[in-house]
Amino acid sequence: MANGLFEKVLIANRGEIALRIHRACREMGIQTVAVHSTADADAMHVRLADESVCIGPPSARQSYLNIPAILSAASITGADAIHPGIGFMAENAQFAEMVEEHGFTFIGPTPDHIRMMGDKVVAKRSVAACGLPVVPGSDGPVEDLDAAIEVARSIGFPVLIKAAAGGGGKGMKVATSLDGMREAWHMARSEARAAFGNDQVYLEKYLGRPRHIEIQLLADLHGTVVHFGERDCSVQRRHQKVIEEAPSPALNASQRDYIGELAAKTTRQLGYRGLGTMEFLYEDGAFFFIEMNTRLQVEHTITEMITGVDLVREQIRVATGAPLGYDQSDIRFHGHAIECRINAEHPETFLPSPGRIDGYHAPGGLGIRIDSALYDGYVVPPYYDSLIAKLVVHGGTRNECLMRLRRALDEFVIDGINTSLPLHQMIVAQPDFLNGSYDIHWLEHLMSGEKP
């Protein structure tokens, strides 16, 4: 490391997040190595990186999930550290261990913390021991249907059956009564087995109309932990986030301070390092911890917009062992920000829509940020996540932000493929969204024609 910084960072990811990390490194004077599959040879982050290494064919399993290939690329290019980005290897404890064992720095938390928070049951136990409120439910995995029924009766229907190793809404089923318990139980376990190779599930009380509130945290290696406020991620479809905003229109200042300070205190007690996000369900004035993501989040952008802090830069600095150099009182919040996730998919059927970009025009103007690796003529491959762009808008007030967002959505042009832009235009025209009166079920009710 030169001047306390890494000299060269390998970015073990692709798409807009790889480009985001490259930009942060470049501004810090750090050289970058892009790894890519054969399908991503013409990707923007590959074009801009100082070096690039092809690590396999299009299949993610043979490229972006290929640990030996990634480590070999780091070795032959002389990288100091590996940034896992989002998805793929970002929350893989074995990968983090192997990175460190081979002499590289893993830009993320310790393998132990990744492992702890990757098991949702262990995560709940760990934070509950620190005094964080959790959703009522089973004390660990439930081994058979009879035991699950007993737990459901004790906490009351409806209940949520969740994969212990889950994420992204997979292995998650709702049982509204005893009659539906058997089917939901078997479906959740089957999905969990297929998605994670682990069919263990646990039960939680199903909340009727909660908000999804998450707290952005950052911890250095010297015991300092700060939070950067909350994000409201309640506009979801099938447990997948669609729109996020910060701050939440549902919280007041005292609620914001309470949950932020509690999350930071818990993070400090756990001895955590690096970036992390604690996620909560919020209903009737009460917060319930659901999980902690031990990585950079897709929606980190809106936190950056209201705080002015480059979270990726700070994540890299902390990984070098540098102290934060500031405390909670130094974090200031300014205005309001909203992010729209633009996917390469049909806005009504949600079928994937890979293909060539025949026309591309990004919106501009004050308070507009586009995080995207698209360019005119780029071919969106069919092998990976459908997220192709993030439209991030900042304004002095929520109303100003909403007006700017509607204008930006009207300006955004992505031709040649279907995208979710029309879905976002529909959402931001809804009175409930404009009023901030929505919950995690709101979008699905709206799209099904039910009353939200």
Description:
It is a single chain. With 452 residues, the chain is an alpha+beta fold. It has three domains: 100 residues, Rossmann fold (3-Layer(aba) Sandwich); 70 residues, Dna Ligase, domain 1 (2-Layer Sandwich); 238 residues, 2-Layer Sandwich (D-amino Acid Aminotransferase, Chain A, domain 1), CATH 3.30.470.20. The protein has 15 helices and 20 strands. The strands form five sheets. The protein has an eight-stranded antiparallel β-sheet, sandwiched between helices. A five-stranded parallel β-sheet has the order 3-2-1-4-5. Strands 7-6-8 form a three-stranded antiparallel β-sheet. The chain starts with 7 loop residues before the first strand and ends with a helix.
Top-tier CATH class of the largest domain: Alpha Beta
The value of Rg in angstroms is 21 Å
Class by SSE composition: alpha+beta
Q: Count the domains.
A: 3
Would you tell me which CATH topology of the largest domain applies? D-amino Acid Aminotransferase, Chain A, domain 1
What is the overall number of helices? 15
Average residue-wise pLDDT:
96
CATH superfamily of the largest domain: ATP-grasp fold, B domain
Share of helical residues: 25-40%
Main sheet record: 8 strands, antiparallel
